[in-house]
Amino acid sequence: MTALAVAWQILVAVALTPVLVGVMRQVRARLEGRVGAGVGQPWRDVRKLLAKEPLAAEGAGPLMSAVPVILVISSLVSVALVPLLGIATLAWVPDDLFVVVSVLLVGTVALALLGLESGTAFGGMGSSRHMMIAALVEPTVLVAVYALSVPVGTTALSSILQARMSDPTTVISPVSLLALVALSIVVLAETGRLPVDNPATHLELTMVHEAMILESSGRDLGWLELGSWLRLTALLGLVVNLALPWGVAADLGVGATVIATLAFSVKLLIAGSMIAAAEVFLAKVRLFRVPELLAGSFVLAFLSVTASYLLV
Amino acid sequence: MTLTDVGLLSQPVLAGLAFIAALAVNDSRRSAIAGTLNALLGLATAATGVGALLGEPGSLTFATGIPGIAHLGQLALAPDRLGGIFLVVVGVVGALSAWFGVGYAHGATATRAAWAAYPIFLWGMSIVPAAGDAVTFLLGWELMALGSTVLLHSEHATRPQVRSAVLWYAAMTHLSFVLLLAGFAVLIASANGTTWEALAASPPTGVSASLAFVLLAGGFATKAGLVPVHVWLPRAHPEAPSHVSAAMSAAMVKLGIYGLLLVTLRLLPDGPRWWAIGLLVLGGVSAVYGILEASVTSDLKRLLAFSTTENLGLMVTGLAVAMMLRSTGQRAVADVALVAVVLLVISHAAFKTVLFLGAGSILHATGERDLDRLGGLARRMPRTAFATSIGALAAAALPISSGFVAEWVLLQSLVHGDTRGPTADRVIAIALPITVAVVALTAGLALLTFVKVVGIAFLARGRSPEATNAHENPASMTVPMWVGAGLVLGLGLVPGWVAMVAAAAVGASGIEPAGLAGVALPSVNALLDPVSLVLMSLAVAVPIAVITVRAARKAPRRTVDLPWGCGGVRVDPTMQYTATSYAEPLVRIFDDALRPTRDLDVTHTVESDYLVREVAYRQRMVDQVERGLYEPVIRLLWRIGDQARRLQDGSVHRYLGFSFAALVVVLLVVTW
Predict the structure, then answer these.
(1) The NADH:quinone oxidoreductase/Mrp antiporter transmembrane domain covers which part of the protein (chain B) (predicted)?
(2) What predicted TM-score, i.e. pTM, was given to this entire model?
């Protein structure tokens, strides 16, 4: 029964993710005075790319086709683990936040290796920057996890969420707010959004994510796109559920699941639109200013932990 | 006679046979025969450890027959469970390294002296955790130092750096020995005997307890390669033959951790708070500094040496947290931290063996250990590449490797040290979040470091003719690596029983097997079952695989001469990112801590100053601890030496004067 719920969650996420990206692009386009390609364009892109042949350079290794699949699997597993719709979890694969972070890191590392495998200067450059950001994000992520786990006494996401559902006032406690802000900055950095990376850039010298996947094409590129978007759904979904724990299904009933699916879609799309709207007014910061941004978010996460110990 | 006794007795026999074989067998078969005997010695050590872990506290006492000196009259070997863990680690690592050495050792690394020193080194390492008293422990410690120094010296004729490495190593290892000798002397002074039981029964108190702790911790930290006494590691590991580096890094430095566990758990269990804080600072600084240096280093073996400092730092951090939590009565969480320390020990032993053997395999095939000159080896040496990548997976603490499990247990213990409510402890409330951040930063930089190692060495295209023409090594070298890689994955997939054994070794409770082969920590509400995680990933992978295979049938991959490459021709391999350029952003960010020296020479064309003909860029990383702490001391010693030279100027008159003065002094003393 729980396995069914998890499968439903994965299906919803896969169906919703291109819509989320489409909405974000459309919001941005409208705010910038463009017509935009329509909400369904990412869906059409992925379908088209998955049907196309990938081109490989002479002597390219099997990694070029393995990495995209690994990235999608890592994203799907993290989507399955994070409580997006309900708090029921599989007995032997608990939604431990440390495990979720590590599963996402597998995708991060696979992408970085893809960048190096391409054997061009751009691939290496993107890979190097990507790993630098990943390395510096890590302390914030784990300390924020720590802060969220202290009041509940466990790092299991469903327990953290359940505590918030049963007592919504904890959401606006200083501990929770600081941790959420820190986590949001991390999500922006991890998913390659402004101000850390520009998802729409094709100017080589500023690219991070795009530089790594520059040599991929066809089916490989399709998986890479879908995999990175799914990471956005998992992480953004986690943050919106932690910030607004309403509508999350407390049991496995059909009614609760339908309500949870609707509530989650609305929350996610609104959060995505807000990010897209904010991105219109933001410029990408210089690469060597990114550590300062991350250090700032680390300080917030750290304050959150000490507050959880000393303010109670 | 128990398994432990048989193992303990067979070790000196096998060591002796290996020693004789090394001296007696001729050049063509020496590596094969001596290597095999050493591998057997390693297996005997591991068997002894298994016996000790099964709860057979074997006990062998040798009467040395030295009359008059009470402590030297008897030497006892009596491994307990904790010693058993380290015996297994030493034995398995020693066996794999010796096996690899059969194919790897040649020329200067396969001489009589080198193969004769190996059993001494290995036997010394297996005496240390088996020792039942301080004197036997120190004897084993010295045998280990002797054997490893001779081995480190192997290639001194071809590379001048080896001599300086040997000097550093000998000096630091003796610093460690002297500190230990003094520390044990303080303990023995207040006890009745030298056995661990006697020492634990009447420990010193007050200032002398702290003195003993500081001396012993300093001695063990030097062997464990913690900052600031790590300086021998990045010199000795690169210069030693690779199979010896593997044994040194994966087994020998661990004995420093064994010593710290022995001191903090058994000999001086109830120390004041500042002992734990001191160890925490030592461990945290080592972890971050080690991995930071590793991430910006391009020499593969030097990088692995710094990564050893990092991992040992993490172990000491775990130990310090356990001590701290114990002192506030949170025994259950402290037990989890102790189990994490043992898991880190086992995991690091497994993956560092694989990585050093992999580095040796690359060195053997290409003659290079500079990552900047490697590349594309996954196609030339697929077996080495695959095993090394698994080792790197664990070094980066990614699932489903042993490193991930160990780091997960460590993090679980860190975030569950509860200090809320009336028992609020401000020191812990500050120390634990900082420790989590330190562990996290370490994990993040380790990711970057090992992506760099795998990506630059094995992927893309070769950056030098040596790399493009490399050939895979024979099975005698790849199979030991595969066995090690199998251990890394095995420990990562079925951590349940390993964690149980680790818990038994440190006397921890509250560790349970869970799921298919996972581990549960009921005291902190956590469960990890890697097999289930893998099964779930496979279930998710099925639809992806189906879609990919069907799409691949319709539109197969096409190889083209000119892929994207930004529309240009596929550029020269030297235009790829190198290890140095990969770490450049980090060097910039941590510029203040690393202080690299950079030289940039721009040569202009004769015709115009606006046109650049050539750019030469050199970057050199100097260990700042060495520059700040050791160089002044070394300069002082040189100055004293120079002054002392004045005493001896070759003048016979002066020497006669010295003799006369000495005579006068003696007469004065005698007639006083």
Answers:
(1) 131-416
(2) 0.93
